[in-house]
Design a protein that fits this description.
Elements lengths: L1 H4 L14 H5 L7 E3 L8 E3 L18 E2 L2 E10 L2 E4 L4 E3 L11 H8 L17 E5 L2 E5 L1 H4 L8
Antiparallel strand pairs: 1-2, 3-4, 4-5, 4-6, 4-7, 7-8
Length: 151
């Protein structure tokens, strides 16, 4: 969504076109998303944020003004920690995939096998992404996309 609407930085703008934030002429360039499992309940606010649907907010400095890239410290599968200090984490509201270099992704997903019916999700390890010293833990229900048969 952020790329489609032009929330990226002008350094990656196609043909030098103004980004949404620049074209809108607003001084407060903050924005927020509320993502819900029921897509009809998800929404975006520009500028600002809704104080109703969160309990805490973490903030991070953008490490590279192309995409929303943050300083990645480590990634972990359960207790197995992988140094990721040479890499950035790109936050993309329109991407439902985890993509990265083999050095990080291979050990992160090693040994994770999801049964076709997803009946073993509770037995799968957590994954933790530490950004600027703040850990963000995902359990299997967060990182496995479950699709009903035929849909």
């Amino acid at each position: 969504m952020s790329g489609i609407l032009g929330f990226g930085y002008d350094t990656i703008s196609v043909d030098g076109l103004p980004t949404f934030m620049d074209a809108a002429g607003i001084t407060d360039k903050s924005f927020s998303f509320y993502l819900h499992s029921d897509q009809d309940k998800s929404y975006m606010i520009v500028p600002g944020m809704d104080s109703e649907n969160y309990s805490t907010i973490d903030t991070h400095n953008v490490a590279e003004q192309k995409y929303w890239a943050l300083k990645l410290d480590t990634v972990a599968q359960g207790d197995s920690v992988i140094d990721a200090g040479d890499y950035l984490a790109v936050i993309d509201s329109g991407t439902s995939l985890l993509v990265g270099p083999k050095k990080i992704v291979d050990p992160l997903i090693a040994g994770i096998t999801v049964k076709k019916d997803c009946s073993n999700l509770s037995a799968l390890p957590s994954m933790t992404f530490t950004i600027d010293g703040t850990p963000y833990e995902l359990d299997a229900t967060d990182y496995v996309l479950q699709i009903a048969a035929g849909g």
